[in-house]
Amino acid sequence: MRTPKFDEGFLVFCSDGYLRLIGHECGHDHFDEDSYAAALKEHDDEVAEAVARSMLDERMPDLARTLVEARTLFRDIWGVLDFQERAVAGITKRAVAAMRRSRIGDQLTVDMEADATDERGRKVIEKRVVSTAAGLDALSPPSHLLGDLNLAIAEAAQVWIVQRDEITARLAGMTRPEIFATGKAVRRLDSLMETAHEVRANMGSLFNAEGLAALSAWGRHGHCPTPFWIEVIGKRVYLNVGLRPRNWQRGIFLTLPDGRLVEPVIVA
Question: Is the entire prediction scored with pTM above 0.85?
C-alpha cells in the first residue's frame, strides 16, 4: 500500500477494534519488534504462497509435457556438445579461444594494420570483419548446463502429480513449505528450460554448413592468429589446423549434427 503520507505501509486491524494506516518504518516503533517482524514475515509468506499456488494450478497439468520435452532437449544438446568437443579438438582450444576474443556481436574479426598512423608515426591496428555467423554464443555454452538441467528434471519429477484429476485436491492439501518446495522445483525447471532452448537455438544456427563456413573463413584468413580450415560435404565435416591440404577429403571426418530440435512425442 502506498499513500501520500507513507512511502510504503499497511492497513492494520488493531486490538482496540480500529483499522489504522501505518508506515513500514513506524511499525517498528509502535509495535513490539519481534511481533511486528513476525507479522511482516507472515504477510510476505501468505503473498508468496498465494503466488506459488496460482503458478502450480497453471503449470502442474502440463508438467508431464515439460518433463518429456526437457529430457529430449537434454539428449539433443548432449549430442551437439559431443560434435562441438570433437570439432574443438580438431582445430584446437587455442583457436576457439582466439575466435571468442575476435568476436564483435555476430562478426568475427582480425587485427590488421591500417593506412593511418598515430602521433608517434606507428601504424594503427584496426579490426577488420572477416565473416558473420549467427549463434556465436554457442562457442561459450553455460557451464554445468546439462548437469543442472538433469538435476532439475529429477527434482520436478519428484513433485509431479501424475493423476490430472487429483491435482486440485493434492495442491489444496499441501502445507506452505510443501507448496514452496514444489513451486521452487517447477520454477527451476522452467528457468533452465528457457536457457537450454536458447543454447540449442544458437547451436543450430552455428553448427550447420553456413555457420561452419563462416568459422572456416576466419580460420583461413591470412591474418588469423591460429589458422585452421573446415569443409562441409553433405553431412561430413572435415577440419584440421594449419593450411588445407590437397587431399583433405581423405582425412577423418565428423558427422554434422541435425540442426532441428527433436520433437518429443506426447501420448495423451
Answer: no
DSSP H or E run through 35: helix 33-59
C-alpha grid cell, residue 45: 509468506
3-class secondary structure, 238: strand
Nearest to 77 by CA among 69, 67, 88, 65: 69
Let me know: does 244 contact 231? Beta carbons within 8 Å. yes
Give per-residue pLDDT as tens, 67-82: 999 999 999 999 999 9
Rounded Cα–Cα distance for residues 255 and 233 (Å): 10
Q: What separation in angstroms does the CA of 50 have from each of 173, 185, 218, 255?
A: 14, 16, 54, 50
Task: Round to the nearest angstrom and report the end-to-end CA distance of the chain.
Answer: 45
What residue ranges do the domains of the chain occupy? 9-56, 57-255
Question: Which stretches of the chain score pLDDT less than 70?
Answer: 1-36, 117-118, 121, 259-268
